[in-house]
Specification:
Helices cover 42% and strands 18% of the residues. The chain contains 17 helices and 16 strands.
Length: 450
């Protein structure tokens, strides 16, 4: 089955040109915008010695504030658990020597410019490894700065195609090895494998309304995802490459209504989807099935819409308490991690708990394989060869789809409004496990709008 799927995707890939993909994902703009910043890193920093010889310095760059702060709302809790784990609390033994681990957290403020700046600061302060998470706007500038400076980096929660193209690679021919950059998440093939089975189970006219902005994720979907669904018999109605922050989607909604779109797909920033979905409801655009990416990933995203508007919208889930996985640091199960967060914070669990936690699991796996944690080339190589199972399940970086890229298998979920008096107004329930059958189904798939 996997070989057949790979063959089908390879055939579809031929429909896309390298130039269109790189232009669409925004590599040209990203490279131009980062040029001055990367030049500042300079060769003088590359290969610079670390700080204290007995300390491993790890940086974490995450959007604690700004438009993507929802992605990072559980990060401080995860850090408290990580710092309590033996390896991070007592140090790691490498070559007969025990190294303390120092974690330096930096807020990207959801800004590409800020992300690049704090990456430079960490590099200048002799970071041995930089971890980063949540959207291309954060992870790509960090990866580019680290690659330029020769500092190992590890990213997550970014489609691998957006990350790879942001470094200058070709996602259609992913042979370039960016030695100092690595990441784990999934890509357009997995989005297709998560959303299309849901679409196929709802009787529709197979006309898809696509709300994709003019940014790295939006253009990755436009130039990489649309050909996949077209090849499977779906008709695409592209709403146009709008600018992030658009306040009026009336013309796009009118287009979707006029074309009688019964399926909806998107990948906007959260505030834009809130605006769009409210306007869609007011103007009578009610697709039978809505599958969203980059938004409605977390409970806080649902608050702006409320239980009625969010009910039965589907999205992807890369982690949750329903995952049958355990921590490689202390054996904590996924369900125990979610429960601990809820008990400590008083808030509903969110799936970025797992991905942020896994950053530190992968870091531990790589560091345990090196002879010198300050040898940046050795640490980078170890990251590219991590193969383990942890809180997000099995991840094998050497297996591709590109050098230094590990894939985790998502499932399809729907937000379900809960009865009055329930602990939470809406809950995320697994409705499709086509890509990860080890995860149990938690609810019946139903149409977003009857």
């Amino acid at each position: 089955m996997e070989d057949q799927e790979s063959g089908r995707l390879a055939g579809q890939d031929l429909q896309l040109s390298r130039r269109s993909v790189l232009r669409g994902i925004g590599f040209g703009a990203a490279a131009a915008g980062a040029g001055g910043l990367l030049a500042a890193c300079g060769s003088a920093i590359k290969g610079a010695g670390s700080g204290a010889a007995g300390t491993i310095n790890i940086g974490l760059i995450t959007p604690l504030t700004g438009a993507f702060a929802g992605f990072a709302s559980g990060d401080q809790f995860v850090l408290s658990l990580v710092k309590g784990a033996s390896i991070y609390k007592s140090g790691i033994k490498i070559g007969g020597k025990t190294y303390k681990i120092n974690i330096n957290v930096q807020d990207s403020q959801s800004s590409p410019t800020r992300a690049a700046q704090v990456a430079q600061q960490l590099i200048a302060n002799h970071a041995d490894l930089i971890l980063t998470t949540s959207t291309p706007e954060v992870t790509n500038p960090v990866a580019a700065a680290c690659q330029k400076a020769g500092t190992p980096s590890l990213a997550t929660v970014v489609p691998w195609e957006s990350w790879y193209a942001g470094l200058g690679g070709d996602p259609l021919k992913p042979t370039t090895d960016f030695k100092y950059a690595s990441m784990f998440f999934f890509g357009l093939k997995e989005f297709n494998g998560t959303f299309e089975p849901i679409w196929n189970r709802i009787h529709t006219n197979k006309i898809v309304a696509c709300q994709y902005p003019n940014d790295a994720d939006g253009n990755a979907f436009r130039f990489g995802f649309e050909p996949l669904i077209k090849a499977d018999g779906y008709t695409v109605v592209d709403g146009g490459a709008y600018t992030d922050g658009t306040a009026d989607f009336t013309s796009m909604i009118s287009l979707f209504k006029n074309k009688n779109c019964e399926v909806f797909s998107n990948c906007p920033i959260p505030p834009d989807f809130n605006t769009f979905w409210h306007q869609a409801s007011q103007q009578g655009f009610k697709p039978k099935i809505a599958t969203v990416a980059k938004v409605l990933l977390f409970p806080a995203d649902c608050d702006a819409l409320g239980p009625t508007l969010v009910n039965n919208i589907a999205t992807d889930s890369w982690w949750g308490p329903y995952m049958p996985y355990s921590s490689s640091l202390d054996g904590m199960t996924a369900s125990a991690l979610a429960a601990a967060y809820e008990a400590k914070s008083g808030q509903q669990w969110l799936q970025s708990l797992g991905s942020t936690y896994s950053l530190f699991e992968v870091a531990k796996e790589a560091l345990s394989k090196v002879s010198d944690p300050h040898d940046k080339a050795e640490v980078a190589d170890a990251l590219h060869n991590v193969n383990y199972s942890g809180i997000c399940g099995p991840i094998n970086f050497a297996a591709g789809p590109a050098p230094g890229v590990g894939i985790i298998r998502p499932v399809g979920v729907q937000w379900k409004a809960q009865p009055a008096g329930s602990k939470y107004p809406v809950e995320m329930k697994v409705v499709d496990n086509s890509l990860n059958p080890s995860v149990p189904i938690g609810a019946n798939l139903v149409a977003t709008n009857a």
